[in-house]
Amino acid sequence: MVSKTEETQLNRLEIQVDNGGGGAWEYLCLARKLKVRRPEKVLKYGLSILNDSKKRSALGPEEWTLYEQVAIAAMDCQCLDVAKDCIKVLRKKFPESKRVGRLEGMLLEAKGLWGEAEKAYSSLLEDNPLDQVIHKRRVAMAKAQGNISAAIEWLNKYLEIFMADHDAWRELAEIYVSLQMYKQAAFCYEELILSQPTVPLYHLAYADVLYTLGGVENLQTAKKYYASTIDLTGGKNTRALLGICLCTSAIGQVSKGRNKEDKESPELQSLAAKALEKDYKERADDKHGLLTCVLRSLKI
Amino acid sequence: MVAELKHEISQNAYIKLVLHALKHKTTAVNGVLLGRVNPQNESVVEIIDSVPLFHSNLALLPPLEIALIMIEEHYGSKGLGIVGYFHANERFDDAELGIVAKNIGDHICRYFPQAAVFLLDNKKLEALPKGKDQSPVMQLYIRDASKNWKLAGPDGGSRLVIKEPAANVVLSDYISSEKWQDVVDFDDHLDDIKMDWLNPELFK
């Protein structure tokens, strides 16, 4: 995941390069380090270095990393000729490389030659069954072909081997959400919270899934996880504050007049509402009226 | 027999939704259509404005519920309501209306029975800079008698029209000047409430 500071740094660098202020190489390095997807810019500035023999040779051995980065960006932009050229250069330099083999597989994918790409990946996996990137390419390939059930199957198989891959769990959770398989999605978020208990994003996503599932028990648990999100973000998360209000209102509707179980934290919703009111007044005053309407319609 | 319903979308409402989809090329996005039944002609639904909703986890309820309350409240005071739903699929070559889009469409139909669902037509969008096609780069879905969402038949083109005939030319211009970078959706607002989902500066 990319933190806010890292993103600001990257954006600042991008603007600098856009305006001819230099720093293209630093920008490309940061984009690579953060694993962000900005193919148009990477392609443009990467090529400007690769096409300038002086700049290119100044990179030393990093030159080859740049070829790889540009090849991937070019495939993302459907500039398959550029990608092909980059991969050719790399193949010449590293005739036996598996890493280049991976790029060749991806080029087949980009051309839509799924069968050939699958063959290329299988043979690479035979040599190295624990190549994570290739396992992930298989999932991506299934997704690209619209075969979501295969994507789920590959991802589950992958997670049996690489259980600690958070991004993969998150990907699986999001696929389940998109299929409205909320129970399965909730399971993925539980795994994520167990392994990384201090990441607010997972608490929030888990709460959102539970709220969507509905029912008193899920709503009450959702409320707790919205509360922990608020705790972990120092009270700064709008989604979680609104979540508390939604849960309170929904619990009130479902358990109307029956039990008054929700006594654990009676002041929680009014605190959440107050925090929202204050934040909107300070930072989005023109929407403050709409927030008041939301709170009123939720009877808070 | 009742005349067949026609949906007439304003240029700005139309362009805003397409730009939103272009801003988030690698994910599914959605939005709502705001308008009313034409007071002079009951068989025309006028779509005056649109609000881009989300670009991540479209199928989660909490953000959607908050967005719908705020949007209804804001436009209700102007005499407009939610009259339809817009969806763009994650994959370029996926031209099917998915389960999430159908469910949100059903929800909107409960309050506005003539509601339609528009699905982004990627093939038409791709051909936009080359062709002179004036018809929208969206497909119209309507509910049939048994409440299933169906692609409006070959005459669908005449049942979904853009009010301003030059809208696609304007859209092409905006695409080449990368105007899509400026579109703000409800996801952005929830991440930072300073971001305004009404996009007041977009067409200035």
CATH homologous superfamily grouping of chain B:
Cytidine Deaminase, domain 2
Note the total helix count of chain A. 17
Structural class of chain B: alpha/beta
Fraction of residues in helix of chain A: over 70%
User: Termini of chain B, distance in Å?
Assistant: 44 Å
| Inertia-based shape of chain B | globular
Tell me the radius of gyration of chain A.
24 Å
Order of strands across the widest beta sheet of chain B?
7-6-5-4-2-3-1-8
The percent range for strand residues of chain B is 15-25%
Would you write up a description of this structure?
- The complex is a heterodimer of chains A (300) and B (204).
- Chain A is mainly α.
- Chain A folds into 3 domains: 1-95; 112-162, no CATH class; 195-255 and 266-300.
- Chain A has 17 helices and no strands.
- Chain A has helices spanning 4-18, 24-34, 39-50, 53-58, 62-76, 80-93, 98-110, 114-127, 132-144, 148-161, 166-178, 182-195, 200-213, 216-232, 238-254, 268-283, 288-297.
- In chain A, 34% of the residues are buried.
- The model of chain A has no long low-confidence stretch (mean pLDDT 94).
- Chain B is 33% helix and 23% strand.
- Chain B has helices spanning 11-23, 61-76, 99-111, 122-127, 156-159, 167-176, 186-191, and strands at residues 6-9, 29-37, 44-52, 81-88, 116-120, 138-143, 149-151, 160-162.
- An 8-stranded mixed β-sheet of chain B has the order 7-6-5-4-2-3-1-8.
- Chain B starts with 5 loop residues before the first strand and ends in a 13-residue tail after the last helix.
- The model of chain B has no long low-confidence stretch (mean pLDDT 94).
- The chains are: A mainly alpha (300), B alpha/beta (204).
- At the A-B interface, helix 11, helix 13, helix 15, helix 16 and helix 17 of A face helix 2 and helix 3 of B.
